[in-house]
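thought: fold this chain, then report.
action: predict
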Amino acid sequence: MSPRADRPGFDVGSLSEVFADTSEVGPRTLYNGEYDMNTPSIPPSTPQFNINNISKRQLTHRNMSMKALVYTGPGTVELLDRPKPTVQIPTDAVVRLLHASICGTDLHIIKGDVPNIQPGLVLGHEGVGIVEALGSAVHTFAVGERVLISCMTSCGACQFCRRGLCAHCTNGGWTLGNQIDGTQAEYVRVPHATLSLHPLPESIDSRAAVAVSDAFPTGLECGVLSANVQPGATVVIVGAGPVGMAALLTAQLYTPALIVVVDLDDTRLATAGRLGAHATVNSGSEDAERRLMELSEGHGFDSVIEAVGIPATFAPCQKLVGIGGRIANVGVHGTKVDLHLETLWERNISIHMSLVNATTTSRLLRLVESGRLNISSLVTHHFPCSQATQAYDTFQAASRHRALKVAIDF
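observation:
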């Protein structure tokens, strides 16, 4: 139930049971010119991969099967044998997975909330792995190289990619685990590999790096940048799931004066405190609204990040935003919400929403490599491939298991 404006305190709903992985569905907008259309030139000495001249290992791999987590119908996923993918066109790559993480979007698929997805699809759009095979047009990677797989597939040439709106790529977008088989398998075919893969430096732990496939770009692009977080600003993040935590970590790069995290789960709030939140508020407490107003000195917050995606969490954001502030809606809403224009119109506020374009992924990896961004806390649970269905059970009951991101290891 949505809270009433005249009711003392407010209930932002069961944040711990709703996953803020709205990043999951992908894209947002181009920020600060992050998207770079300049493809590195190919040195004359670079050997050209010929799709008809495949190594023995690749040829063998072509005829073998693999384990994959397959959506078999509403409410069910199964670990099945599937044929290994192969390079189909020159811009493809095949990646052998090391880790693939589960996103809230995957849960929506299993529940039958994404009707365009039919049974038989391999799930997943997040992963880290090793290049197994390359199409002849892919020159920026080598077989055997460690790579991060972007949650967004980008051709780099269509009208939307040229504007940095890679989530709306006419030849890609949210492709893996949606239009074609995804990353929750021993191998995956990645279209448009030149822009859809990122080199993963050896100094970065692959087990933690899987969170940079989706959660961190979403937290930064859809949360921090959409909310216009500025030095000295006040920020409140509603929802301490994986994307909310990623927003917390990346917001600190912009040196706001105050970051407050709101959730119902005290364990997650304690984690948020350790990760840099200046204050935390349990939304189930009777004095939650009063406490939040005190923290903002009665003015409301400059930047409000909604990282859940239900009416009960969007409603208080409209009360928390200060004059001239901005609400960034990161959560993926499955139902309509009330928008109180009768109280918002005179406060000069902005509301911004978008899909994750993952145009900041390279920048995020540089921040991790330099030690400026600590990503080690987001992936809390790892399961071997043989226990992939147990990984889903854990993620679906994340609060009970004290889980944030859950990964499957291959």
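thought: worth noting. The two ends are 42 Å apart (CA to CA).
final: tokens above.
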